[in-house]
Design brief:
single chain, alpha/beta, binds iron/sulfur cluster, about 280 residues, five-stranded mixed beta sheet, about 35% helix
């Protein structure tokens, strides 16, 4: 976990900014986090009145990607408390034109302190918002971020193809195809997912080693230029399966080969819809 801004200070600032946004901006609702009244857990919440802003918090358990919740209500004008990885997902939505910027008020979190048990936070290279209307917390400087990332290694870097096959065969053997990883992912948002398609039937019903591998390989192949490396997929998995290292590998390959980082700007064309004759063609996996 990173500790640049305390959760307590961020929570206090979020309450104030949320109150202001609900009082002064013409929004239908604000998405954020609150302490569950009965569970005591940090839960996503929708509030509509300034006086409800007192309930809001930001904690090390603020795992769900509120960016994805925006898509549920995209006809409404919404404000959202956005971690930097959420702002990248939002910038990606804007680049694909699936949400209207005029319907968004983004409260971005600077110097994100990260989340408990989320390994993506240890590798996170975007800890300030890439797009926002309001901000809370102190920014982390690029020098500080570079110092924190020095020496970080990614799982697939040193693995041979045979070791990768062995690793993922063991990981996916525990997969029950519950699709919680897909549902938690902010950039898995197709109206009709290929896993539920029966014409053609890409993945047969039921779980087996082959079917699980097909599901994960196909999902991974949908991720180049989309994955913002937030770790929500892995955090959602009830079996503790490592699938993020595959999408993270593509995340780094897109940068290395095409100088492309998903969700860095709303104006950036999606990776797979933009090409030049000079592009390298090494294949991704
Ligand atoms: S991955 Fe998201 S939650 Fe984790 S440190 Fe980065 S911006 Fe924060
Ligand atoms: S694939 Fe995983 S790490 Fe990548 S954007 Fe989706 S949830 Fe986040
Ligand atoms: S959340 Fe875990 S168990 Fe469920 S489909 Fe994804 S990898 Fe498999």
């Amino acid at each position: 976990m990173k500790m640049e801004n305390s959760y307590k200070d961020l929570s206090a600032e979020i309450k104030e900014v949320a109150k202001k946004v609900l009082a002064e901006e013409d929004v239908d609702q604000l998405l954020g986090f609150a302490q569950g009244e009965f569970s005591g857990l940090t839960e996503p919440v929708i509030i509509k009145k300034a006086e409800q802003a007192q309930r809001m918090v930001f904690t090390e358990d603020a795992t769900p990607m509120l960016s994805k919740y925006l898509l549920e209500y995209k006809e409404k004008k919404q404000a959202v408390v956005a971690k930097p990885c959420d702002t990248r997902a939002i910038a990606y939505y804007l680049s694909e034109d699936i949400i209207d910027r005029k319907n968004l008020v983004i409260i971005g979190i600077n110097g994100c302190p990260g989340l408990k048990d989320n390994t993506a936070c240890d590798e996170c290279d975007t800890r300030n918002p890439v797009i926002s209307d309001y901000q809370v917390g102190e920014e982390i400087s690029s020098a500080e971020l570079a110092a924190e990332l020095k020496g970080v290694k990614y799982l697939l870097e040193d693995m041979t193809p045979a070791e990768r096959k062995e690793h993922y065969s063991q990981e996916f053997a525990r997969c029950t195809q519950c699709y919680a990883c897909r549902d938690a992912c902010p950039v898995c948002y197709c109206d009709h997912c290929y896993v539920e398609s029966n014409q053609p039937e890409w993945v047969e019903e039921g779980s087996s080693a082959d079917k699980d591998m097909i599901f994960h390989l196909m999902r991974t192949m949908h991720m180049p230029g989309r994955c913002v490396n937030c770790g929500a997929c892995e955090m959602a998995c009830p079996e503790g399966i490592d699938m993020r290292s595959m999408t993270t590998h593509l995340y780094h390959k897109a940068e290395e080969l095409y100088d492309f980082r998903p969700g860095i700007s709303p104006e950036q064309p999606p990776l797979l819809s933009d090409f030049s004759k000079e592009d390298s063609e090494p294949g991704f996996l």
